[in-house]
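Reviewers of the previous submission asked for a worked example of the structure-prediction workflow described in the proposal, so we include one complete record here. The input consisted solely of the amino acid sequence. No template or homolog information was supplied to the procedure at any stage.
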Amino acid sequence: MDKITEVDIVIPCYNVEKTVKNCIEILINQSFSNENYHCFFINDASTDKTGEILEKYKNENNVTIIHHEKNSGLSSARNSGIEAGSSDFIAFLDGDMVPQKDWLISFQSYFDKNTIAVMGDNVPPKNISLTPVEKYYFGNLRGARQYNDKDKIPLQYMLFGNAMIKREALVECGMFDEKIKKYGGEDTDLAARIWDIYPYSFVFSKKSDAIHYHRRDLKDFCYSMEIYGKHNLPLLVKRYPHHKMKFAADWIFSFKGYAIFNFIVRKVIKLIFKIYPSELFIRYLVASSVIRGARKSNKLK
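From that input alone, the workflow returned the following structure tokens.
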């Protein structure tokens, strides 16, 4: 087991005024030794009161506040935090998430010489009624939740919204690509680079949860996934053609892809969904949005 002695926590923040105070409070009061971790909050030119809230904590011993003059995107915000720190381990947490008090300590048992990064889960708040799309988003059909605690997970499921990584490997493989500014893809791009040097080095933790305060509806979710499909999925396919099956790129222009993901099937699924909002139908509509975006892209033609 690789002992975690010092940690930098990188928290990108953009318009998270409703959640960031709770996020800060729990992070500065972790059960991990206060002298052995430091929080880097990056305000990515928020237009709400996020920056004002962060400033109130600038004198905390284990807090550094970084303000971006213009909104530069998630990759840039994370890189600013990475570069500001120096610890051997780096934890990432999105500004609209609130972990448990033992969040940092929870990662300890997952690291060994073969583990580069550990991904925690995001869970919904307990006091809200979930919409059908939120039940899918937080459900077991999606991403790494298909796996058990301490399982190795494929690169396409490795996300850094709630994760910890060894700095040495991150520096070796390169940091987040700041050219990726539109929704989605920056995590997968980094994961692919790490995987090519350190395959089978990602582990899923079911003990490192963080509450994710981000309400979603199906229309916005599908729109975001279509943006990902149009702009960033083609980039991933071109950079890592040996991983294109992991990105489900074989569904874009293939016969099976057109047979299942087409206007008629989508229309029928949407009509059925109004009567029976099954998570399986949501999964189809989300995947269809990605495929539709990719088919609109000139980068794959």
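The first strand starts at residue 7 and ends at 13. We consider this example representative of the routine output the project will generate in years two and three.
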